[in-house]
Amino acid sequence: MTDNADSEGGGVLKVVAQADAAGQRLDQWLTAALGSGFSRSRVQQLVRQGAVSVGGTAVTEPKRKMQADEAVEIALPEPEPAEPQGEDIPLSVLYEDDQLIVIDKPAGLVVHPGAGNRTGTLVNALIHHCGASLSGIGGVRRPGIVHRLDKDTSGVMVAAKTDAAHRALAAAFADHGREGDLERVYAALVWGAPARGTGTIDAPLGRAPRDRTQRAVVNAEREDARRAVTHFQVEEHFGESAGKAAASLVACRLETGRTHQIRVHMAHIGHPLVGDRDYGAAFKTKANALPEPLRTLAGAFPRQALHARLLAFRHPTTGELMRFESPLPADLAALTEGFRKLDRRVN
User: Fold this and answer.
1) Which CATH number is 56's domain given?
2) What is the pLDDT of residues 220-276, one digit of tens each?
3) Which of 43, 309, 312, 321 has its CA 20 to 30 A from that of 154?
4) Residue closest to 159 by CA, chosen among 129, 192, 198
C-alpha cells in the first residue's frame, strides 16, 4: 500500500511490500506497486539516483531482491521541466479544474509523441495550455494520459493534471466501469447493417500477423490475446434497398479498451467503418455504387468514421459524476447527412 503520496512538488511516497513481493526485483515490484504514472525506466532512474530507500537504507541497484514486509520510501525530486515541450496548439476545452481537463479532440491530432510524431501532439498542446498547473506526475511535469483515441478518431478525452487524479482515473479506465461509473460511447458509421439491432461482440484481440501496428481477432489461447468486448446498438439505417442498407449509424459502448477495438470488431462482423483504410479496404468499392455527390464524399472520406461522443466518470477528488458529450464533427456530420439523403430520394 502507499501513503503520503503527495508528489506534486517533490515529496515522499511510502510503500510496504506484501508477502507476494518476496523474491521480486525492486524495480519490477515498485513499478507495479506505484501503478500508472511511473514507468519502469523512471523507477530505475530514481533507484540509481539514490532516491529509493528500503528499511531506511538507500538502495541504488534496481535488481535488488525484495522481502516481505519491507518498507520502501521514494523521495521524489522537484518536477523537472516538461518533456516534450509545450506547443501552442488550439484545444476545444469542455471542462477544466485543478485536477483534470476534458477536451474534444479533433481528427488528425496524435495523442502522445512517438516515432514519426515527436511534436504537434495533444500532449504538447496540454503542456502549453496547462502550464504550471500540471503536477509532477512521476516526478516529471506533464499531463497524465489515462486513455487514448486513434489519431483519426475524434471526440471526448480526459487527461489528469495531478498525480492523485492520474491514479484514480487510470484505475477507473482499467476497471472499464465494471465496478464504477465509467461510460464510453462512440458513434460509428459502418457499411451495411448488422443483422440484429443490438448485440455484443466478445472477441479477443492480438497483433495482426502481417502488420504489428494493427490488431486482429485471435484465438484466446494466443500469448498476446487480450479480452475485448464491444456492445453495439444500430441507431439509423441509410439507403434501404432489397432489404439491405447501404450504411448504418451505430452506437458502440466499450466494456474493454483495446487498441483499434471498435474498428476491428465491426469489421469482424462484416460491417467495417466507412473510411477505414486499415480494416475496411475491401469495402472501398461500396462507395462506387452510391449516387453523386455522396459517391465522391464517401470515397474520399479521409479517416475512419468514428467519434467518441460520450464520456462519463466520477471526479477523482469530489466523487461527482461527470458526463460530457460531443456532437458529430462537421466532416462526419456531413457524411452522415449525405447517407440520410439516400432515403429521402427513395421516398
Assistant:
1) 3.10.290.10
2) 999 889 999 999 999 999 987 656 889 999 999 999 989 999 999 999 999 999 999
3) 321
4) 129
Write down which residue in 175, 196, 224 finishes a domain: 175
Do 242 and 324 have their domain in common? yes
Do 104 and 68 fall into the same domain? no
Beta bridge partners, 11, equal: 76
Closest to 247 (Cα-Cα) out of 258, 255, 237: 237
Catalytic pick among 104, 150, 152, 331: 150
pLDDT tens digits, 121-175 = 999 999 999 988 887 776 777 888 999 999 999 999 999 999 889 989 998 998 7
Query: Do 202 and 325 fall within a single domain?
Result: yes
Tell me which residue has cell 478518431: 153
* Rg of the chain, C-alpha, whole Å: 23
163 is catalytic: no
Give residue 130's domain range. Answer: 93-175
Dihedral (Cα; 201, 204, 205, 206), 10-degree rounding? -170
Q: Is residue 224 part of a domain?
A: yes
| CATH number assigned to the domain comprising residue 292 | 3.30.2350.10
Residue 242 grid cell: 432489397
Q: What is the DSSP string of 246-291?
A: SEEEEEEEESS--TTHHHHHHHHTT-PBTT-TTT-GGGGGGGGGSP
Instruction: Please report, as a single letter, which amino acid is at residue 213.
Output: T
* Phi/psi of residue 92, nearest 5 degrees: -95, 100
214 φ, ψ to 5°? -105, 170
Number of compact structural domains in the chain: 3
